């Protein structure tokens, strides 16, 4: 509900933030689902392709409620890509694992690529301002705010940097969130394929209903947000440390 209170207190800044975050969040969700569809197609299942889901067009993937949740609670979802395991060629469990991990892998790749650009951009500015000693800022997983970037590189590039930062953030959040082994998340399929190895690849409808209740409980208790923040902070620190070494800071 933080965005609602922010909208009431500072509508102009909040609307600008929503607009700047919009492209990256739509792209991250679309590429996540596209990766599922592409992996399923490679494994022999063309169900998603036939339904027009093997595309990065956001209109094919975005779930309105799931997208709104991104702004209300910090994470959300898109329309699940339809998969028919009976079409898989070869080991059906291996194929299910490949399809399930594809979306998470896509988000991690996007996080690493976008994060490297973001930290390099920020690191170069920090180095110019305070010298090599500024490397500690990067190693702690922090980067310059868009306002600082705008001061040194111009307002337009400041907005571009802010869009990049939102894109990086949503990708690592989606990757970590989907790793939770709770049906119907991708993490449940990964757990089932590697550890549980049940005869059925999909959780029952009742299990998915329980999964939603568990996720809501974790959300409102704050556990889910804290767990995601814990992992993402270490991810930022890792990227910052690598960039600091590259820049000799």
Automatic annotation (TrEMBL):
What the entry lists under Pfam families is as follows:
Peptidase_M50
Q: Which residues cross the membrane?
A: 12-32, 59-77, 97-121, 156-180, 210-231
Domain Peptidase M50 residue range list: 27-220
- What CDD domains does this protein map onto? S2P-M50_like_1 (cd06158)
GO-annotated molecular function:
metal ion binding; metallopeptidase activity
State the needed cofactors, names only: Zn(2+)
Q: Which family does it belong to?
A: Belongs to the peptidase M50B family.
Name of the protein: Site-2 protease family protein
Q: Which organism is it from?
A: Candidatus Pullichristensenella excrementigallinarum
Taxonomy of the source species: Bacteria, Bacillati, Bacillota, Clostridia, Candidatus Pullichristensenella
